[in-house]
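Encode chain A's predicted structure.
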Amino acid sequence: MKLLNSHSIAGFVAGGAICLTACFSIGTDDAERVKKQRPVVPSATVSPEVPAALPFCGKEIDLTRYDRHEGVDRELSSFTYFHSTTMLLIKRANRYFPIIEPILKANHVPDDFKYLAVIESSLNPRATSPARAVGMWQLLEGTAREYGLTVTPTVDERCDVAKATEAACRYLKAAYEKYGDWATVAAAYNGGMGRISGELSKQGADSSLDLWLVEETSRYVYRILAIKEIFKCPYKYGFVMRAKDLYKPIACDTVRVSKDIADLAAFAREKGVTYADLKRFNPWLRARKLQTAGKTYTLQIPQLSEMDYRTPNTYVHDPAWVVK
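Encoded structure for chain A:
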């Protein structure tokens, strides 16, 4: 066996060092190149897919035109990435859709109009707009009275979910008799029948979706389509919820009242609940007293056993809302 001399050993070591340095340099360059091309990000923002068409009230709405495609894209993107608000809408729907849906059905109004209430008020029975529209269906005082609701200094039935839904159904049916098209009915709910009829005539259009309108009304139908699409499969859009996350319907006892109540706080204490609870479950009560003016009202008194989450919610109105 031939031994390496000192010069040979030095040359071998130097050559190896050069090779390692070159390899390290190549690896570092590659890593930097990859980092620039694919930077590490904390999360991914993906544009939601816009379908070629979406159903509304039994009719397919074509979304291949640029304006309709972009209209739905805007609203899908907004609801998808407005995380806290959209998630809250689904949670609230678990409590209020069971009230709204049977009323729509009984009045022969398409079920899709429950999503109109979602975008009108975020399913908040006490919602109030700058234009003084009130309640889950955002009715103006004159419209509310026209369609059978009571509005007085102590009572505002626009905040009664069931009664306001009945009134909204009467409006929607009247609009459908006029237009014969549910998408146009939805636009008229926001813009008013007079305005929509006038613009259809002036612009020579057959559909409200083809009208040039103020931005709020132009977006209106697309907002309904988008929130409906997300409600159909929240998980697809990044909303992961369990049954216990949804707001549970709270069982109530009912008390019929035909006489004035001078002090609602005292009345609530007699029923074993707080004044705040009485107002939350009867948001149509406007004042600290109730003047019946000869009418009979039904008050909801929440059952004490239902008023906490020590027993988690198990009611799921739509199985698509939760992961199994």
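The chain has two domains: 53-244, 252-313.
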